[in-house]
Specification:
single chain; 208 residues; alpha/beta; Glutaredoxin; 2 domains; six-stranded mixed beta sheet; 12% strand; globular
Length: 208
């Protein structure tokens, strides 16, 4: 009997000693955070959001309605080393130099034939009269950050303060604050009439 009581007491002591450890283990398991799972689903969510945003931008660009845009159909193409007399001023396409003008903002007029080649690659060429105010020019130059498909340069022969030209389309406005400036860029940079979409706007002619 004494031996049995002694064994029971030892067993009770062992249970008391192990009890808190088991509870602690359960508590630890409950508190652990599944960071791997969270990261996995977070990455999937980011990809999904990016895809939806891209699709929305594509839809927006095709559905944008820009009033006052002049369309020129059946625009010729082809390379030439000669100077070209274009029907439109600034030109909206046509025969052009074999070297495109690098996209970006310039302080001097560009050669038409090089700029037209950039239009063929999907660029929009923003031109302005040399007497346009400095603050307006600054706003236009901001439309051509590095890596964009936008050219900005003065153009002495303009009949309006500002003109935006893409392949086959042109819009003339009086102010850089006109909301149609950004609308034109959204619609016609790499627009649906671009003859060579995705062709580079760097690696060509870097000076006016």
């Amino acid at each position: 009997m004494a031996k049995s009581r002694s064994a029971r007491r030892a067993s009770e002591r062992e249970a008391k000693a192990s009890g808190p450890n088991r509870a602690g283990q359960k508590s630890h398991l409950k508190k652990s955070t599944p960071w791997g799972t969270i990261a996995f689903y977070g990455a999937i969510g980011a990809v999904a959001i990016g895809a939806v945003t891209f699709a929305a931008l594509q839809t927006d660009s095709s559905d944008v309605d820009v009033s006052g845009v002049q369309e020129v159909k059946n625009v010729e193409s082809g390379h030439t080393k000669a100077d070209v007399t274009y029907k439109e001023s600034p030109p909206v396409g046509g025969p052009h130099d074999e070297t495109w003008q690098n996209c970006g903002a310039y302080d001097a007029p560009l050669r038409d034939e090089n700029a037209v080649h950039s239009l063929e690659h999907g660029a929009v060429w923003i031109t302005y009269r040399p007497d346009l105010s400095a603050d307006q020019v600054t706003k236009l130059r901001s439309k051509a950050p590095a890596g964009s498909y936008v050219l900005v340069s003065p153009y002495p022969a303009l009949t309006e303060p500002i003109a935006l030209s893409s392949w086959g389309f042109q819009l003339k406005v009086k102010s850089a604050d006109d909301e149609r400036v950004d609308a034109f860029l959204r619609k016609y940079v790499q627009g649906e009439r671009t003859p060579e979409p995705g062709a580079p706007c760097t690696g060509g002619k870097a000076t006016p």
